[in-house]
Amino acid sequence: MDLPNDPQLTATLLSEALPYMRRYANKTIVVKYGGHAMGDEKVAADFARDVVLMKQVGINPVVVHGGGPQIARMLERLKVKSEFIDGLRVTDAATVEIVEMVLSGAINKEIVATINRAGGRAVGLSGKDANFMIARKVTRTKKDPDSNIERVLDLGFVGDPHKIDPTFLEGFAKSDIIPVVAPIGVGEAGETFNINADTVAGAIAGALKAERLLLLTDVKGVLDKDKNLMPELTAAKVRALIADGTISGGMIPKVETCLLAVDRGVKGAIIMDGRVRHSILLEVFTDKGVGTMIVGD
């Protein structure tokens, strides 16, 4: 974090952050890192420093990352065609190999290296490590407009978290290591599954009973019909906003992830703009925070 040149102001800022450091000491915060923020070197460096600072003041950060744009570029480079159904990439056997290579390989290790350069000790993981994230195949149904008959759509190796072993990740909380998790799960028969990163972050936060789930996106948060940011919403209010169409499109799966997380014991789930410099620190160590926080009823 870039501190001002005025020593008195620096001391004041650190003093004001102290109550928040105490509040979150020994608590777990799950951070989903993705979107356009991952492609900006400066934002990535700031993100790494913020995560390292959290660890150094006694917070237990768990990073979960996405990588949709990077996967798309690799598939295009290798001339592998793919399609989306309901926002999920149809993932056949050939595609899942590429997805795993990009997520668990290039992206994961790049984030780990950036955190390590910032002074932390990060380790890259996927759900395959110690089988800590068991996944099950996702299916979707679609109704034929002519016959009105529903048919099952095969998404291939696309999964949802079925079982998460919290003890595996809890072990890192007792160390100085920051886990960085790629959204790859393992099936009960050993299959590899591609899982939506928001979904993984929410499931991990719920399994760990995290204090906070932070979803870093490329939007300010949840907006009302006049495009104004709504700083805090209850679960009931979120459902009402979905019903009346205020929350729509790609925001729906994000708020549903937050709802599931708070239902499983997370104290608050925040949808926030990861492009804002030090957005994590603004959320965790200031009174106003950033983005939209969703809490239980």
For the structure shown, list the relevant keywords.
globular, 27% strand, 4-stranded mixed beta sheet, alpha/beta, 8-stranded mixed beta sheet
Q: Could you characterize what this model shows?
A:
It is a single chain. The protein is α/β, with parallel strands linked by helices. 40% of the residues lie in helices and 27% in strands. It has nine helices and 14 strands. It has helices at residues 7-24, 41-56, 68-77, 93-117, 166-173, 197-208, 235-243, 251-263, 279-285, and strands at 28-33, 60-65, 84-85, 88-89, 121-126, 133-143, 150-164, 177-182, 184-187, 192-194, 212-217, 232-234, 268-273, 292-295. α2 (41-56) crosses α4 and α6 packs parallel to α8 (251-263).
Look at the structure and give the mean pLDDT.
89
Instruction: Estimate the strand proportion.
Output: 25-35%
Distance between the amino and carboxyl termini: 35 Å
Determine the structural class based on helices, strands and strand pairing: alpha/beta
Tertiary shape: globular
Lateral arrangement of strands in the main beta sheet: 5-8-2-1-11-13-14-12
Say how many strands there are: 14
Q: What is the CA-atom radius of gyration, in angstroms?
A: 19 Å
Order of helices and strands: HEHEHEEHEEEHEEEHEEHHEHE
Q: What's the tally of helices?
A: 9
Q: In percent, how helical is the residue content?
A: 25-40%
How would you summarize what this structure contains?
The chain is an alpha/beta fold and 297 residues long. The chain contains 9 helices and 14 strands. Strand 9 (184-187) and strand 10 (192-194) form a beta hairpin.
